[in-house]
């Protein structure tokens, strides 16, 4: 009988001790549950905002990468044209080149 009484007192003590920390019989209080739910909801919203910002930055980065590729392509085309022009100039007589320089200089002077 003493043993049952001791176990009963011990069980009641544990039960009440758990009530003071988290609710009745280890169950959480409703206010705590609501508080955790609100914090979790706020955290999720903050993460959604961060994901949206990252998406915007990713889109901007994609645009910049496309611009870089277009610039590389244009530069390559220009370099190819310069090589072709060099080959043509090397085959031209010096008098023609001198005349071309005069025409280009006149054009530049008019643009100033």
Description of the structure:
This protein has 112 residues and is mainly alpha-helical. The chain has three helices and no strands. The longest helix has 61 residues, at 30-90. It is rod-shaped, with a radius of gyration of 41 Å.
SSE pattern: HHH
Largest sheet: none
Low-confidence stretches: none
The helix/strand class is mainly alpha
Principal-axes shape call: rod-shaped
According to DSSP, the number of beta strands is: 0
Report the sheet-strand fraction. under 5%
Mean pLDDT: 84
Output the radius of gyration: 41 Å
Relative helix content: over 70%
How many DSSP H or I helices? Answer: 3
How many angstroms separate the termini?
Answer: 114 Å
Sum this structure up briefly.
The protein has 112 residues and is an all-alpha fold. 89% of the residues lie in helices and 0% in strands. The chain is rod-shaped, with a radius of gyration of 41 Å.
Helix and strand arrangement:
Blueprint: H1 2-22, H2 30-90, H3 94-111
Which characteristics define this entry?
0% strand, mainly alpha, 112 residues, single chain
């Amino acid at each position: 009988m003493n043993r049952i009484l001791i176990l009963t007192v011990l069980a009641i003590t544990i039960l009440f001790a758990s009530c003071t920390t988290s609710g009745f019989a280890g169950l959480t209080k409703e206010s705590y549950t609501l508080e955790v739910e609100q914090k979790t909801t706020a955290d999720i919203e903050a993460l959604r905002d961060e994901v949206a910002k990252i998406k915007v930055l990713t889109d901007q980065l994609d645009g910049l990468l496309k611009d870089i590729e277009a610039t590389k392509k244009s530069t390559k085309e220009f370099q190819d044209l310069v090589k072709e022009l060099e080959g043509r100039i090397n085959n031209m007589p010096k008098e023609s080149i001198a005349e071309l320089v005069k025409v280009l200089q006149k054009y530049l002077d008019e643009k100033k």
